[in-house]
Design brief:
Elements: E1 6-12, E2 16-22, E3 32-33, E4 47-54, E5 89-93, E6 114-120, E7 123-129, E8 133-142, E9 149-155, E10 162-168, E11 172-177, E12 186-191, E13 203-210, E14 214-222
Parallel strand pairs: 3-6
Antiparallel strand pairs: 1-2, 1-4, 5-14, 6-7, 7-14, 8-13, 9-12, 9-14, 10-11, 10-13
Length: 223
């Protein structure tokens, strides 16, 4: 809750080492999956050390290597960088903009979804494995009436159903179906009028409902 910089290094003999920057501070525990290719030129046949550098107070658990058991069903590269002017954006999750402070990407709503964040070529990406439903609680209730569009990037190789919900207190919620599976990263742009009767002066949650394994990046509202 107080670190502003945290890097993890993998080290092979030499020493040969490479860092990957992690996003801090976190909102609760943050699950991080890092493709081992991110540590190039470290010799993956000869790993002997880890190193962490940064600041603040850090709690770590469950440090391990694992195989991709999804048949390689993951993006080979990050979502394209969005081009909207930061002055015209209210960002929920994106490395390209300043996000709403205090947002909880993994609230406990009793879901079975396994949520994590993955670094793809250094770009933070949300991953929902075995999606049934998953919420996002914004750090503050926001007024998006000056915005016209909800933007997000989606990638999936195996989902057959995916709906995104916008929610205001009550709760009042409305869903919009997204076409899946995708062919590479899919840019999704939804006119905010599609979410009527949600109160756009008082949006406080998102919800995703569907199936399969979903990768999401660049969730934001824009003019």
């Amino acid at each position: 809750d107080n670190s502003t910089a945290l890097n993890t290094f993998l080290i092979s003999n030499g020493p040969v080492e490479a860092p990957v920057a992690l996003t801090v501070p976190t909102a609760g525990w943050s699950s991080i999956d890092i493709p081992l290719s991110s540590f190039s030129p470290v010799d993956l046949a000869d790993i002997l050390q880890f190193k962490f550098d940064g600041n603040g107070d850090i709690y770590l658990d469950n440090i391990y290597f694992f195989k991709d058991t999804g048949g390689g069903n993951m993006p080979t590269g990050p979502a394209p960088d969005p081009t909207d002017d930061p002055a015209d954006v209210i960002s929920v999750f994106s490395d390209n903009y300043n996000d709403i402070m205090g947002t909880n990407l993994n609230p406990d709503w009793g879901q079975g979804t396994m949520m994590s964040e993955m670094l793809i070529d250094g770009n933070n990406t949300i991953v929902y494995n075995g999606l049934d439903y998953q919420g996002i609680e914004l750090g503050s209730n926001i007024d998006v009436t000056a915005m016209s569009t909800l933007y997000l990037d989606v990638w999936t190789a195996n989902s057959t159903a995916l709906d995104v919900f916008l929610i205001s207190p009550g709760p009042v919620e409305k869903s919009k179906a997204i076409t899946v599976p995708t062919s590479g990263w899919q840019r999704v742009e939804i006119d905010l009028t599609e979410f009527t009767p949600v109160d756009l002066t008082n949006v406080f949650q998102f919800k995703f409902v569907g199936n399969g394994d979903i990768y999401i990046d660049n969730i934001y509202f824009r003019k």
